[in-house]
Amino acid sequence: MGEDLCKILITEDEISSRLDELAAAIDRDYEGKEILVLGILKGAVMVMADLARKMHTPLTMDWMAVSSYGSGTKSSGVVRILKDLETDLEGKHVLIVEDIIDSGLTLSWLKANLESRGPASVEIATLLRKPDATTVDIHVEYVGFDIPNEFVVGYGLDYAEKYRNLPFVGTLAPHVYGG
Ligand code: PRP
Ligand code: MN
Ligand code: MG
């Protein structure tokens, strides 16, 4: 495992401290409301679990699985719903939780899809955002860290389904993905 990574980009403590701040901001913004927190499988599992435990706003959880990457390192631009959510969104305040926004293609498609279902609001929280995401026209209310354009894994993020269980975010060594 150790030689598969170049470096630790964001430590476990840094993630936890930043999620404290995001949870506090979300609690302030949604005071008096209830949130449907929507985690995007599989990458968002870790941030969903940790962020939700730091929030005090009443919430329910649901999950969607969409995929744009497959097992490669580049976004295909094709978004597929692998699992839809089970909640009627009518009148709900939806907070999408993502691990990373890279090209932004997944979220711009997903946000439009969810907005067509009649929710009261749809906002986005992401742990990580890469530079390309700013070229797509979507508003992201809660961003943990803006990171450089490196291939990162850990804390939910995979390469070919591996490394999701690392407690930190690290940069994958190029030899692992043939770079
Ligand atoms: C990754 C990541 C985001 C998406 C971001 O998911 O977790 O959901 O890609 O890419 P984009 O901004 O370029 O669209 P992936 O499709 O790899 O599925 P996974 O969460 O199951 O790993
Ligand atoms: Mn994902
Ligand atoms: Mg992935």
UniProtKB/TrEMBL annotation:
Cofactor(s) the record lists: Mg(2+)
Lineage top rank: taxon: Bacteria
Top-rank EC class of the record's enzyme: transferase
Swiss-Prot/TrEMBL catalytic activity: GMP + diphosphate = guanine + 5-phospho-alpha-D-ribose 1-diphosphate; IMP + diphosphate = hypoxanthine + 5-phospho-alpha-D-ribose 1-diphosphate
Residue ranges occupied by any Phosphoribosyltransferase domain in the UniProt entry: 17-159
Gene3D superfamilies found in the cross-reference section: 3.40.50.2020
E.C. numbers: 2.4.2.8
Metabolic or biological pathway, per its Swiss-Prot or TrEMBL entry: Purine metabolism; GMP biosynthesis via salvage pathway; GMP from guanine: step 1/1; Purine metabolism; IMP biosynthesis via salvage pathway; IMP from hypoxanthine: step 1/1
GO function term, MF aspect, one: glycosyltransferase activity
UniProt subcellular location: Cytoplasm
Keywords: Cytoplasm, Glycosyltransferase, Magnesium, Metal-binding, Nucleotide-binding, Purine salvage, Transferase
Annotated InterPro entries: HGPRT, Hxn_phspho_trans, PRTase-like, PRTase_dom
NCBIfam families recorded: HGPRTase
Family label: Belongs to the purine/pyrimidine phosphoribosyltransferase family.
Name used for this protein in its record: Hypoxanthine phosphoribosyltransferase
Species of the source: Flaviflexus equikiangi
